[in-house]
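Notes from the 1:1 (GR / supervisor)

We went over the backlog. Supervisor wanted to see one worked example end to end before approving the batch request, so GR pasted a single chain during the call. The sequence is below; no edits were made to it. Supervisor asked that the structure be written out right there so they could see what the output format looks like.
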Amino acid sequence: MATQFSIKDNRPWKARFFTIWGGQALSILGSQLVQFALIWYLTVRTGSATVLATAEFVGMLPGVILGPFVGTLVDRWNRRWIMLLADSLIALVTIVLAVLFALDAATIWHIYVVMFIRSLAGCFHGNAMSASTSLMVPVESLTRIQGVNQMLNGGMNIIFAPLGALLLAALPLQGILAIDVVTALFAILPLFFIRVPQPERIERGKSQNEAQATVWQDFKAGFQYILGWPGLLIVSLMMVGINFTVIPAFSLLPLMVKDYFGGSAIQLSWVESMMGIGMLVGGALLGVWGGFNRKILTSMVGLMGMGLGTLLLAFVPSTAMPLAVGGALLVGLMSPITMGPFFAIVQSTVEPDMQARIFSLLSSVGGAMAPLGLMIAGPVADRAGIQAWFLLGGLLCILMAVAGLFIPAVMNIEKKCGVSSDPLNIISKQTV
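Structure output shown during the call:
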């Protein structure tokens, strides 16, 4: 039977957790408003696709390239101070950029530097918060919390763009940057007063050898941990498959709406808004329902539903735009049902002092797959039609879900069945 990791503090956990969570949610909204405003500023000022692509790359680079090392450091350092310092750094560089805009001295390279620092600090903060959740929330509530997180993501996707546009019409850019600083304070202040549990370093061999473990050894241990657990490895590869196919497919939606359906920006907003609404409803459903007793079964059902929604977009006639909107709604609805339980599995079964590494590795590999898939999807769509990539993504999701139901290592992932070697023993060898 798998070890279930949970909070040891018997005091009510909801007030403490949701105080921190609420501050972080406000800070995320502020960050998304800043991202929207900066991208729009670069669009209006330069009109250059190269500049926009560079900005996107700069924002993506820390998570893809440095993410695994960030997770390793998070597992070694105090997570409360990581979150506090990361949020403070984001607020500080935002203040600097706001001053530069107020003085009319901001340049494109200033924006690149600030976006890079904000993204890097966000990696530290996100991994620390995800890895700390399992120590702040009872194990039986982790799936519901993931549903709430997914609901938050869906809600943000719905409101941040129109709210950002409204604020840009009413405020100068430095005013929006100031809003982000204020929302960051809501994330920072609770961390001064609420204790964030720190995982104990698990003894893996002699204590003197444990003390000598380097960052590189801990980094390798994260890889060995995943490789030594077939169920986690297979499900992780499924998530990679989603990032490689489904995410690039939906990146092509603007062209699909314009060229295939003959629609405009209004029709595109219908599709994208419905996906956000679906995520909001799916997250709320998961938060209330909590999923099946076996979390992995919930994920497989969600993955199958995501595939069906994607296939609907692949086969919908060009005269049936409402069906495309329905497909986007189904994909959005099933996204939290797929991802939420998987993250809850990681939080409830992976050792607390290993979680940041695992989360960052999954995020890094998954993040790298999306642009790689997009590079391939573009030429494929040009030759075979945009719907061909939706067909590939939908079929892959359904096949992965069906296959997962018949793979014992996947279906018993919450019990760690099928582990050929004890991950902790593998780690011991790496740190000695």
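Supervisor's comment: The longest helix spans residues 14-46.
Batch request approved.
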